[in-house]
Design goal:
Elements (H helix, E strand, L loop, with lengths): L1 H27 L6 H4 L15 E5 L3 H17 L4 E6 L2 H10 L4 E5 L7 H9 L3 E5 L5 H9 L3 E7 L3 H8 L2 H8 L2 E6 L2 H9 L7 E3 L9 H4 L4 H8 L7 E7 L3 H13 L8 E6 L5 H10 L5 E2 H4 L8 E3 L6 H7 L2 E4 L12 H4 L5 E3 L7 H10 L2 E3 L3 H13 L1 H16 L4 H14 L1
Parallel strand pairs: 1-2, 1-4, 2-3, 4-5, 5-6, 6-7, 8-9, 8-12, 9-11, 10-11, 12-13, 13-14
Length: 430
């Protein structure tokens, strides 16, 4: 009954809303790319033969797409005969997908989760295995993929307490969906308990860690540190504060931190790089800076011309980790506001201690790991961040030690992607 209501509501929303979306797309150009794919029309060239293993991975947005790149690399190493399909839902996700794709990876926009549309997409692709990354559970797609003969796997599964409580409201439907999966790989034991609590079979759930943290420096920052420094025109000892994956409200708070730090002896030359999590928020951030009469440069401008100010607003995808590699101080956003935080291990890989606010629900495992060795530096408010940075500026040996420990604990996460790839091979060969 719940599934029927879900489809009924979905189709009614589509029928009413699609003409307006189409008109908006025609007038603005947005969402025009991939519109046919979202409706299940994936084009030609999908023919295959019986011996080909086709693995379809779905990552909702940028973070999951980057995770998919790591997993595809491991899967290709142990399943050389396989080809891959990588689907995503956002334009930013597609940009990253295409950047990291090889000739064995076909990138598409995910079809809308409506009966008929998903069926058309599944019949076209004919995946041997469909992999959900983290917790992208789309009922229509999963049920039809299962009935078509595809094997389903969850990799890097995570389920917060909040999501668990929400899914409990539809526990019967969730149990039916989870029964479709051949195997479920989760990050922590707490995730395993929640999946099982929603109806997953215990013998199908394995705790294999977080492959998002299984990242090497080369894949995160493909260009040299010198390249990132040259873009910013930094001299060797010039301090750099990098704020990554920020959300609404955080840029204004961090601007105060930056301005306070600039008043300190030794930090007058401080440069601030701020990278909003979502590029569509750039006009909002620019408006805030202009309203406060604070000059800034866009990264796209300083890549081709000299930096004119001490504030750089990142307006491109894929450059943040490179700036982490050369940062003096790193703050990870989504944590001073209630957004659950972001991947603090990306900076730890480079040996950087990471500052973050109190909202880290979505990355609590990473926070616990880093804090356990002193490589994670939680702060409660902007004033705390200012005071902490000033403390470490006066105690450089303590800061260096924190960075070394951050790098060491990040290194312990290596191997999770390979374990998850081996699980997929086990499912295929079973």
């Amino acid at each position: 009954m719940l599934y029927g209501l879900y489809q009924l509501f979905g189709w009614l929303t589509f029928i009413v809303g699609f003409p307006f979306l189409l008109l908006y797309s025609v007038c603005t150009g947005r969402y025009r790319e991939g519109l046919g794919q979202r409706l299940g029309f994936l084009g030609t060239g999908w023919e295959t033969h019986d011996r080909v293993t086709r693995i379809w991975l779905h990552g909702a947005s940028v973070g999951e797409v980057m995770l998919a790149g790591l997993l595809i690399k491991e899967l290709a190493a142990i399943l050389p005969e396989a080809d891959f399909v990588l689907s995503t839902m956002t334009e930013q996700g597609m940009e990253i997908a295409r950047k990291q794709a090889t000739d064995k990876v076909r990138c598409i926009y995910a079809p809308l989760d409506l009966v008929g549309i998903v069926g058309r997409a599944i019949r076209t692709v004919q995946p041997t295995v469909y992999i959900c990354l983290e917790t992208e559970l789309w009922p229509a797609f999963l049920l039809q993929a299962k009935s078509s003969g595809s094997k389903l796997v969850i990799l890097n599964g995570r389920l917060s307490e909040r999501s668990f409580n929400r899914y409990q409201l539809a526990k019967g439907l969730m149990a039916e969906i989870l029964s479709c999966f051949a195997m479920i790989s989760v990050i922590q034991q707490s995730d395993a308990k929640r999946f099982i609590g929603l109806g997953a079979e215990p013998e199908k759930v394995r705790v294999l860690g977080n492959a998002k943290y299984d990242q090497d420096i080369e894949s995160l920052a493909p260009m040299s540190e010198e390249q990132y420094r040259s873009w910013l025109n930094l001299h060797p000892d010039q301090p750099l504060l990098v704020a990554g994956s920020t959300h609404t409200g955080e840029e204004e708070m961090l601007l105060t931190v930056f301005q306070d730090l600039k008043k300190t002896t030794g930090l007058q030359g401080l440069v601030w790089v701020v990278a909003p999590r979502h590029l569509q928020r750039l006009p909002e951030v620019e408006a805030m800076l202009k309203q406060k009469q604070v000059p800034y440069d866009l990264l796209s401008d300083v890549k081709s011309a000299e930096r004119k100010t001490d504030i750089i607003l990142v307006d491109s995808v894929g450059d943040l980790a490179g700036f982490y590699s050369i940062a003096s101080y790193v703050f990870c956003g989504g944590s001073l506001v209630e957004r659950g935080g972001h991947n603090i291990m990306e900076a730890a890989v480079f040996g950087k201690p990471v500052f973050y606010g109190p909202s880290m629900k979505d990355f609590s495992d990473a926070a616990e790991l880093l804090e356990s060795v002193g490589g994670g530096l939680p702060v409660n408010c902007p004033d705390d961040l200012t005071e902490s940075i000033l403390y470490f500026m006066d105690h450089p040996k303590d800061y260096d030690t924190a960075g070394q420990r951050a790098r060491k604990i990040a290194a312990t996460q290596q191997g999770s992607a390979r374990k998850q790839a081996e699980l997929v091979k086990e499912v295929i060969c079973h």
